[in-house]
Amino acid sequence: RIEMPELEPHARVDSFVEIVGGYSVEQARLEADRCVNCGICVATCPAHMAIPDYIAAIRDGDYERGLKLLYETNPFSQICGKVCTRKCETTCAASHEGDPIAIRWLKRHITEQVPFERYRDIIGGPAPETGRRIAIIGAGPAGMTAAFDLARAGHEVHVYEAKSHAGGMTRYGIPEYRLPYDTIQREIDLIVSMGVEMHYETRVGTDITMAQLQQDNDAVVLAIGLWLGRSTRIPGSDHPQVKKAVELLRRITDGEAIQAPEKLVVIGGGNVAMDIARSMARLQQQQHGKIAVTLTALEDKAHFLADPVEIKESIEEEITILDSRGPQACIVDERGEFIGLRTWKVLSIFDEQGRFAPTYDDNDEQVHEGDWVIEAIGQMSDVSLLGEELTERLEWNRGRIQIDDDGHTSEPWLWAAGDCVKG
After folding, report:
1. pTM over 0.85
2. DSSP secondary structure string for all residues of 38-81
């Protein structure tokens, strides 16, 4: 197992490759040799990638075969080689006698051994045209994966995207220092090369209606993601100085000038919370010469939802992380000045039935001063584009669109995929 080197303060640790220039072919083969081909990782991978097979391709030195295997199930393999959450590694059999196999890094190793100019030839082009046309709403990972698979099957595919670039939350939710935009664009370019027609800055429900898409296409796919931030709904959360993380990340990606407050508080313990805390800390450093970001999370440190690397990097960037703190109110004084966030100590998060029902020790109260409070506690879909009539006809599951095992909604012409279904 290759050990991570010691890091200088503020060094990026999100990727072994960023630090030491990547696995050499010899190192990658040594790592690949540790795989016992048990296949448990495949079941754990959300995309069910052929992990033992592409690891075997590294062992054999056949990187073209490895690349072909990656793109059979995942047209975002370059992105996943850098930022996927590595569910596969949590079940790796090798971890019983040491560290799990570095599956994510090996995936990235394959993508970096093959010149991008060769990708299309290796992966192959579309099948003969079928004469069928499909519209996809949303150019995020789910929508563009559907576009890739459908175009390769020979269908005519049109993707409608409200924003000026494709990538969805990989572009507008993950900061560029974690995922460079050129990596995203290479994936999009490859998918588009299959014959996918992109319609950017086209908002369904405004620029084109759902009824028109139904009329013009044999099928429509909803892949609208989760673009609205959820609110804590605590007292004071409707104050103008209480912001949503997902909206701020989008504005940063769009290059908007954001004046960072000198002090701020983030509510949340997931990757989005860490991303916005680090992004705002960097703006504070640029604009004020100092960092004053406090992050509060319901979970204790052992159960944080964020990737451990994200937590480590946040601490390295001088962000104060407080665990087991439950938000109670955003405080405004008698003069109307915004003060910050009041929290109580968390005693438990779930009840005996496993339902979300936090309990607190109100004797352990803290006030975290901040000019802003940023909520990063989850997201939801903007389904206004559907219109009232279609919304009423569709079946729903806890606020999400209900689908069958094939991704089919209750409407015969409409499918749905991605975060708007899975959460």
Report:
1. yes
2. --HHHHHSTT---HHHHHHHHHHT-HHHHHHHHHHH-TTHHHHH
**Can you name the residues that pair with 199 across neighbouring β-strands?**
160
Using an 8 Å Cβ cutoff, are 12 and 18 in contact?
yes
Classify the C-alpha dihedral 160-162-166-168 as positive or negative: negative
Q: How far apart are the first and last CA of the chain?
A: 35
C-alpha–C-alpha distance, residues 327 and 344, integer Å: 7
Residue 342 tokens, joined: 């009041």
Model pLDDT, residue 6 = 41
Tokens found for residue 181: 């935009």
pLDDT in tens, 369-419: 999 999 999 999 999 999 999 999 999 988 899 999 999 999 999 999 999
Instruction: For residue 389, count CB atoms less than 10 angstroms from its CB and return exposed for 0-12, middle for 13-18, buried for 19 or more.
Output: exposed
* Paired sense of beta strands 396-397 and 400-401, if any: antiparallel
- Tell me the C-alpha distance between 231 and 379, whole Å: 9
Q: How far apart are CA 156 and CA 150, in angstroms?
A: 8
Amino acid identity, position 139: A
b/e burial code for range 336-362 (CB count within 10 A of at least 16 → b) = eebbbbbbbebeebeeeeeeeeeebee
Per-residue pLDDT reduced to its tens digit, 99-142: 999 999 999 999 999 999 999 999 999 999 999 999 999 999 99
Say what the pLDDT of residue 423 is. 85
CB-based contact 51:57 (threshold 8 Å): no
Give the CA dihedral 367, 370, 372, 377, nearest 10 degrees: -40
Residues with Cβ < 8 Å from 392, sequence gap 6 or more? none
The first and second tokens of residue 269, run together, are: 């313990």
